[in-house]
Amino acid sequence: MVNSIDPLTRLHGIVSSYLSEVLGVDIGVVERLLAPPPRREYGDLGFPLMRFARSSNASADSIVESLRGKLWERGITWASPRLEAGYLNIVFDVEKLGDEVFRLLSSGWRPSMARTSRPETIVVEHTSANPIHPLHLGHARNSSLGDALARLLKARGHRVNTRFYIDDVGRQAVVASLGFRLSGVTPGELASRMGVKVDHAVGWVYAVTHNALEAVAARRRGETSKVDEALSILARLKERGDKEVFERILESVGSLEDPERLVSDMMRRYERGEEPEKSLIRGVVSAVLEGFRETLRRFGVDFDDWDWESDLLWSRLVEKIIEEARRSPFLTVHKDAIALDIPRIAREVLARDPEASSYIKLPKSLEIPPLILVRSDGTTLYTTRDLAYSVYKFRVTGADRVINVIGADQRLPQLQIRLALLGLGYRREALNMMHYDYEIVSLPGRRMSSRRGEYVTLDELLDMAKARSVREVESRNPGADRGWIEATAEKIAVGAIRFALVRPGRLKPITLDVERILDLKENTAPYLQYTHARASSILEKHGEIDYLKAHPASLEEGARREIFVEALRFPLVSAKAADDLAPEDLASYLLRLADMFNSWYQKDSVIHEEWEGARHAKAALVLLVKSVIGEGLRLLGVEPLEKM
């Protein structure tokens, strides 16, 4: 870590560098192990010195004494190292540390994430929803995770490029576009007729067309139960949309001589960039993207680049990958289609490349099939296009790393793609591409299916959360300006959803309870926003802080000391969350700090403190906590509030 004006980051850097040098241990290992001990009485920072000192020429005692001198040489007199039970424990002199922090606060300094000394160019691809219906609850988790990662990595000092992959090639986009061709209306016209956002209109047409095609195909196969199922779904869809357009689609699909052949022909023609398919499908997808952008703006998410899957085909990047595969020794035939022999790549390439084997870990029980590149009808698969896109992301950005935020259900295809890249000679790309997977999210008692037109859209979720937030804000602020109430409720709703989708960790399935995530007393974003607003209120009542009168010794008192030291850990905690790609760790830290603060200020008044030195010191402590919670919330995509 680079030196920082932040005192704890500076201390951490000096100690880590010294221990790394004297013990001959990688500095990254030292940085990770130099952490708060499990119990406060042991000290404020601890390191398992004896684990490494035995193999060094210096004794543990001499290392501690030498470190003490090094800290003093660097002007750090508030941290005393000592050796206890084989551990290097560092105890802070809070009075001296408080002097330094008060000086920094008076100059306008506020805690921020420690910057890395090894900045990288990192691509974060996230959300990348199929452009055939509105963004739904699952996409909200993807967006929340992906945007939080991008924010953390940027704050850490990395060069971050965010990208949205527009999956406009394949059956789903064709089916939605076919529905508009058969109905004779445009997405914009239908949205106006239905009184909905344009992406909602497209989602309805996709579901109607898909189920009409299913009914026709099942009838021709004589599968009565499947016909009945499709007709039941269609009856529900009819009641939710434009009945005239519904009847046109149903009648037109029923009159088609060979609907599946028509869909396949449209897929092939679009892959080749032929008209009228090119303009039709691009137009429908562009309309959905317009709806996406509106929702994402409301959700506080944006992207640096939007990449069209079809452009990969039309620019011949996909064809180049296929040509390389045809020349590869790993080319095979699988299910009458050309494919890459992924099991053979795993056996042969990983066996002679230990580094690659350590990066690409294969689950022992997982059977990995070959990766089909081109169907028998000549159309490509999405995984083939993903291969080309993986190479493209590295080449167009010069990325050191690419992080793909994609659901856990895509673990096998993502593993196949990395192995395929390795087999085709794209070793750097294969070893520096990460599948950042996450588990499903649902609402109690609701199931989702885009083909049935049954899903909880992010728009609906935001509206639901905002309506509940409006009632809460109104009850707390009777007679307040309506515009302020609406704006505040919107910020609470967005923050509540984003925080709830990040806090549990990406590998935990979530059932989202809207009432609970808005609770001001729960471990929620509104709870943190309320804590921030409470700190603002205390500071407003206190007035200007006089740092010359603030007495840092008053911070030695138990609860104050713990809160003071915990708040100062923010730069290091947030840096580790960024390095570990773990926004949930930052969320847990903020909740812990808020709990400590809320438990303290109710028992230890700031504005009614009689001793002036303690009153200004406690006000400075409130400012420190407020700054940390505010910055932490922003890193997670939640807007801190001054008043609730």
TrEMBL record:
What is the enzyme's main class? ligase
Gene Ontology MF terms in the entry:
arginine-tRNA ligase activity; ATP binding
Coiled coil region boundaries? none
Q: Which domain of life is it from?
A: Archaea
Q: Which reaction does it catalyse?
A: tRNA(Arg) + L-arginine + ATP = L-arginyl-tRNA(Arg) + AMP + diphosphate
| The enzyme's E.C. designation | 6.1.1.19
Q: Which residues form the DALR anticodon binding domain?
A: 528-644
In this protein, which residues make up the domain named Arginyl tRNA synthetase N-terminal? Answer: 9-92
SMART domains noted in UniProt? Arg_tRNA_synt_N (SM01016), DALR_1 (SM00836)
Claim: Ligase is one of the keywords in the record: yes
Q: Which CDD domains match?
A: ArgRS_core
**What positions does the record give for the motif labelled 'HIGH' region?**
129-139
Where, subcellularly, is it found?
A: Cytoplasm
Major localisation = cytoplasm
Cellular component terms (Gene Ontology): cytoplasm
Q: To which protein family does this belong?
A: Belongs to the class-I aminoacyl-tRNA synthetase family.
This chain's protein is named Arginine--tRNA ligase
